[in-house]
């Protein structure tokens, strides 16, 4: 397989992995949008995925292709998952089991509309990387066909 095809497939795979992690975190946020009590004691805190660009020499593609190191290509990985620092939402509901002495309940800082937008964005990023990988595969197969 040519070096550029290996590189494009590696970059696409890394992008798909990163976007999949983002979709997992968004799903976790949506699932906990009403969780007023966690093991940490308090409402669930929204989480975000932070991406980081890396050069091929720091990744496994350098094992397959030393010529990729000379190119200016970069790929992506999940650097960390952080908690959103926005304060929790407070609602008055004295009948809620987690209400404080004034009847206020702290709810997670999760906005489901915002999460759905993030999910849609991550899904489109994943699909874009799948398209690139499929195009690379077609080019490789066409190259093999020409060499026969």
If you had to describe this structure to a student in words, what would you say it looks like?
Residues 83-104 are annotated as: Disordered. It comes from Mariprofundus aestuarium. Residues 102-145 form the Flagellar basal-body/hook protein C-terminal domain. Helix content is 47%, strand content 17%. It has one domain (3-147). By secondary structure, it is of the alpha+beta class. α1 (3-31) packs antiparallel against α3. The protein is elongated, with a radius of gyration of 22 Å. The strands form 2 sheets. Strands 1-2 form a two-stranded antiparallel sheet. It has a two-stranded antiparallel ribbon with strand order 3-4. Mean pLDDT is 86; it is low at 58-70.
Net shape: elongated
Sheet-strand content, in percent, reads 15-25%
Helix content: 40-55%
Separation, N- and C-terminal Cα atoms: 15 Å
Total DSSP E strands: 4
Instruction: Kindly give the count of domains.
Output: 1
Helix count equals 3
Protein name: Flagellar basal-body rod protein FlgC
GO cellular component, one term: bacterial-type flagellum basal body, rod
InterPro entries: Flag_bb_rod_N, Flagellar_basal_body_rod_CS, Flg_bb/hook_C_dom, FlgC
Keywords: Bacterial flagellum, Cell projection, Cilium, Flagellum
């Amino acid at each position: 397989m040519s070096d550029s095809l290996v590189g494009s497939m590696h970059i696409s795979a890394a992008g798909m992995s990163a976007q999949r992690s983002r979709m997992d975190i968004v799903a976790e946020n949506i699932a906990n949008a009403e969780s007023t009590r966690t093991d940490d004691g308090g409402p669930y805190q929204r989480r975000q995925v932070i991406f980081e660009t890396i050069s091929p020499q720091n990744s496994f593609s350098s094992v397959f292709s030393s010529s990729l190191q000379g190119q200016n290509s970069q790929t992506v990985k999940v650097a960390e998952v952080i908690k959103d620092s926005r304060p929790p939402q407070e609602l008055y509901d004295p009948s809620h089991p987690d209400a404080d002495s004034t009847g206020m309940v702290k709810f997670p800082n999760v906005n489901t509309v915002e999460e759905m937008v993030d999910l849609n964005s991550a899904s489109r990023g994943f699909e874009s990387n799948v398209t690139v990988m499929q195009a690379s595969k077609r080019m490789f197969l066409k190259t093999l066909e020409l060499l026969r």
